[in-house]
């Protein structure tokens, strides 16, 4: 590895040295920043601007010069609804189904995620043996790829899978889990929590360990019960970290795609189709490729994410300061 | 677990005050349920991947992989499937089956190889033993272009990680060790990119990558994600702690700025770089949505894409699918076992995964 890198670094040194002579030391900073800024510009900021052009133009052509300007037509199509609660009354019913699926999914998933992560973190923070082992057990699924997570659970949940075999044995009888809309949705929430809980547990555990020991000692001296200590000391002191975790879970939840797409394909029907899958299907998987609709929907999601990210930065700052 | 060993010692020593409190029981109950729920599915996957098709079709399934044993009988070139006879003259004996058709079977006993006996199949019970079938794995290489997918994933992961580390470290160096006009503006730009996840710019990103001639090329996956705000921040936080005096001393010795960067700053930032490298490897190896859009030809597929497409195409080919899933999670599991501590701290400190 070093044998490749050393000559490469020597080669880069030649133009950098020339630039240093030309610009002086402090302005050389721009040379160090340049590759990163080019990548940010080309693959983050330029796309945001182009997204607006896509969202306001029609046709299935990807080249911008071949796309006629249509103004707010794409947004109009997305938002044309008799009643926003009822996706069937909308012109683009698939979009609204995806929106409501995502809202339900994110609410349930973030709730369970924070709840179980908190419970796990509190238990891991208690006086238990082999804490490192248990911590890594809960963390382990975080590293698995979304497709692997989906396949592991698909294999367990299939019609003749091990879960149904167990249910048959207990006499409850098996269920064709992923064919039933509500079960498929429920399992989607479950595998999402299963796969990501360890990550949030880790953050909460770090937050718990940052609470000074003497606060607890004082509480014990005053004869406070365990539950009272938890409610009056742990929860308030952990609140900033919990806020960070909640907002992070919401940001991630809105962008859920990979594991559910590999798990259910969005089905049965549209039962587990979420907003990113809607964008993917409109823009890349279906024919004709409706780039305009996909971009318009992206912009709406981006709006939600910007709000959430600002909330995250604010929560982070509060967490650090507080 | 230093003072006492064994499960009881392990459990009873918790509170240090002798007896277990009921909350300890609940805690350990929860934790062991966690072990079962978190590891169980993966263990089940791995065990299943060593079962042959017959065993996989079996319902209810058995925990360990079993396969029918075979008998070598003199006079027969191939080993014969072994059965125990349940009734009749040969009851209790293990025999090899030579032919089977329409409910009737012809068997021979290893003691009397010349003597072929005809029985009905309901009198025969297969002899089975625990056997890890590796065919599922070997046929991956014969039937699919598995090595190519593996290579594509490996190439993307390594190239993207190296480029990302270099580019992000350069930016972090500039932002931590230079006083220049516009530094705060640049920091704001970096924070700004936090708000632009790939998922919301898919369409224009697709156009840009196509225009750059990187559609259906591995570089189309590698380059767009090479600069990350998380990486810049993580490295910058670390580099700020490196004292400026070291840089000044090097400048006195007429070291060029680039040399200071790669001879001094990079080696001193090794812990932060290691954390970022592990994160990058994980991100790239597991990446799915963007490769799904950029790589549409089968020969360009990464392991993740191949897995996903095969589960759609070969709905029933679970043997191959299970083996491939195990091989896909293996590298990450290996990384996890050796570098678990770094990963945990890395993820906790960056809030990124």
TrEMBL record, chain A:
Q: Where in the cell is it found?
A: Cell membrane
GO CC annotation, single = plasma membrane
- Start and end of every ABC transmembrane type-1 domain? 99-312
Transmembrane ranges? 28-54, 103-124, 136-156, 185-212, 233-254, 260-280, 292-315
Alphabetical keyword list? Cell membrane, Membrane, Transmembrane, Transmembrane helix, Transport
Query: How is it placed in the membrane, per its record?
Result: Multi-pass membrane protein
Gene3D superfamilies given for it? MetI-like
Instruction: Give GO terms for biological process.
Output: transmembrane transport
Note the superkingdom of the native organism: Bacteria
Family that this chain belongs to: Belongs to the binding-protein-dependent transport system permease family.
Instruction: Identify this protein by name.
Output: Carbohydrate ABC transporter membrane protein 1, CUT1 family
TrEMBL record, chain B:
Main localization of the protein described in the UniProt heading: membrane
- List UniProt keywords, sorted A-Z: Cell membrane, Membrane, Transmembrane, Transmembrane helix, Transport
Q: Name one GO cellular component term.
A: plasma membrane
Single GO biological process annotation from the record: transmembrane transport
- Residue stretches making up the ABC transmembrane type-1 domain: 150-339
Where does the sequence pass through the membrane? 25-47, 149-173, 185-209, 221-239, 260-283, 318-339
Membrane topology according to the record: Multi-pass membrane protein
Among InterPro entries, the record links this protein to: MetI-like, MetI-like_sf
Q: Where in the cell is it found?
A: Cell membrane
Pfam families named in the record: BPD_transp_1
Family statement: Belongs to the binding-protein-dependent transport system permease family.
Protein name, entry field: Carbohydrate ABC transporter membrane protein 2, CUT1 family
Q: Which organism is it from?
A: Loktanella atrilutea
Lineage of the native species?
Bacteria, Pseudomonadati, Pseudomonadota, Alphaproteobacteria, Rhodobacterales
């Amino acid at each position: 590895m070093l044998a490749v890198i050393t000559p490469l670094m020597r080669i880069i040194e030649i133009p950098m040295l020339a630039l240093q002579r030309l610009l002086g030391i402090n302005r050389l900073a721009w040379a160090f920043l340049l590759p990163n800024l080019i990548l940010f510009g080309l693959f983050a900021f330029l796309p945001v601007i182009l997204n607006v052009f896509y969202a306001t133009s029609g046709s299935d052509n990807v080249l911008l010069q071949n796309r006629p300007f249509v103004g707010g037509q794409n947004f109009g199509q997305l938002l044309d609804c008799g009643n926003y609660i009822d996706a069937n009354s909308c012109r683009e019913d698939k979009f609204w189904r995806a929106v409501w699926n995502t809202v339900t999914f994110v609410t349930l998933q973030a709730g369970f995620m924070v709840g179980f992560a908190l419970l796990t973190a509190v238990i891991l923070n208690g006086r238990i043996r082999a804490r490192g082992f248990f911590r890594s057990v809960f963390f382990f699924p975080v590293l698995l790829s979304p497709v692997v997570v989906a396949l592991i659970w698909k294999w367990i949940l299939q019609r003749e899978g091990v879960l149904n075999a167990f249910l048959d044995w207990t006499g409850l009888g098996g269920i064709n889990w992923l064919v039933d809309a509500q079960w498929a949705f429920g399992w989607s929430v479950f595998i999402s929590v299963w796969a990501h809980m360890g990550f949030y547990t880790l953050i909460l555990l770090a937050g718990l360990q940052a609470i000074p020991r003497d606060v607890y000692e004082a509480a014990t001296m005053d004869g406070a019960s365990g539950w009272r200590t938890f409610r009056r000391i742990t929860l308030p002191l952990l609140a900033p970290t919990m806020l960070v975790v909640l907002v992070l879970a919401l940001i991630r939840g809105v962008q859920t795609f990979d594991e559910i797409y590999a798990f259910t394909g969005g089905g049965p029907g549209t039962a587990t189709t979420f907003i990113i899958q809607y964008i993917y299907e409109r823009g890349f998987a279906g024919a004709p490729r409706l780039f305009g609709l996909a971009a318009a929907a992206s912009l709406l999601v981006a709006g939600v994410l910007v709000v959430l990210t600002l909330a995250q930065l604010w929560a982070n700052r509060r967490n650090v300061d507080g | 677990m230093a003072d006492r060993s064994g499960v009881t010692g392990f459990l009873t020593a918790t509170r240090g005050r002798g007896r277990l409190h009921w909350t300890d029981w609940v805690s350990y109950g929860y934790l062991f349920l966690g072990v079962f729920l978190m590891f169980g599915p993966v263990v089940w996957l791995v065990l299943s991947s060593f079962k042959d098709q017959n065993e996989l079709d079996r319902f209810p399934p058995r925990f360990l992989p079993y396969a029918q044993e075979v008998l070598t009988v003199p006079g027969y070139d191939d080993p014969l499937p072994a059965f125990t006879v349940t009734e009749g003259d040969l009851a209790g004996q293990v025999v090899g089956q030579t032919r089977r058709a329409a409910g009737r079977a012809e068997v021979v006993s290893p003691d009397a190889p010349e003597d072929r006996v005809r029985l009905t199949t309901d009198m025969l019970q297969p002899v089975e033993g625990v056997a890890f079938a590796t065919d599922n794995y070997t046929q991956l290489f014969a039937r699919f272009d598995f090595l190519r997918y593996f290579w594509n994933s490996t190439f993307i992961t390594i190239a993207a990680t190296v480029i990302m580390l270099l580019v992000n470290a350069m930016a972090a160096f500039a932002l931590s060790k230079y006083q220049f006009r516009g530094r705060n503006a640049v920091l704001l730009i970096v924070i700004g990119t936090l708000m632009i996840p790939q998922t919301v710019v898919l369409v224009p990103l697709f156009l840009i990558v196509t225009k750059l001639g990187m559609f259906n090329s591995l570089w189309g996956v590698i380059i767009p994600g090479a600069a990350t705000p998380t990486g810049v921040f993580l490295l910058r936080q670390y580099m700020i702690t490196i004292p400026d005096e070291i840089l000044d001393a090097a400048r006195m010795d007429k070291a060029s700025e680039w040399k200071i960067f790669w001879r001094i700053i990079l080696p001193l930032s090794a812990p932060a770089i290691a954390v970022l490298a592990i994160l990058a490897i994980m991100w790239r190896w597991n990446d799915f949505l963007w490769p799904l859009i950029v790589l549409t030809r089968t020969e360009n597929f990464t392991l993740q894409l191949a897995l996903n497409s095969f589960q759609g195409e070969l709905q029933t080919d679970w043997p191959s699918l299970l083996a491939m899933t195990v091989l896909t999670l293996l590298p990450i599991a290996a990384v996890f076992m050796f570098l678990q501590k770094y990963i945990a701290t890395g993820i906790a400190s960056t809030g990124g995964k």
